[in-house]
Structure formats: structure tokens, C-alpha cells
Known about the structure:
Elements: E1 3-7, E2 14-20, E3 26-33, E4 36-44, E5 50-57, H1 60-67, H2 72-75, H3 77-92
Antiparallel strand pairs: 1-2, 2-3, 3-4, 4-5
Amino acid sequence: MPSRTHSKPSGHAHDQTEVSDRSGRWCMRFARLHAGVVTGTLQRGSGNASTQSWRLFKTRDEFRACAEQDQMRFLDPLAHIQAMAEFDHAFDRPAPSDAR
């Protein structure tokens, strides 16, 4: 079963959450920012190989369009569904206040 973890905010991120697949080779992080929700994806390969990417989504539709093309929806449908739900939760959170 995919796992869900919470971590402390870093920088201006607010309430980061993470979803990972059953194997632990894929995970996606979500953090609410003023401009939208930033997502970070980490894919681990064999040995020490890994690929990490980050993207800012300003709308739900942007994220949904990207997620519908992600191969994870076929490889681990439960993790894909959980990632969609976590994005919605992150998007619904209030943006962090500036600590200036």
C-alpha cells in the first residue's frame, strides 16, 4: 500500500506531504506556496541512480493534465489516486503567511 508521510515545512513551504508507491522507488511531495502548489517527484533506479524534478502548479487543471499523462497511473493506480487527493488537500490549504 502507498505510504503517506508529513514533514516539517522548509523555507516558505507550508505543511509538506509525501506519497510513495509500494516499492519505495517513487515518491511525490506537495507543498503549498503563495503561487500555488509545488510538487517534487523522486524516482529511484537501480544502484544509486535517481531522478528528481520539481514543478509549480497554479491550478488544479494544470496538475490533473500532467498527472493524467504520468505512467504512475498505470504502474501503481493507488499511489496515483492518493497523489491526486494529496494535491487537492495541499491546494485547499491556506498559503503560508510571510514572516518578514
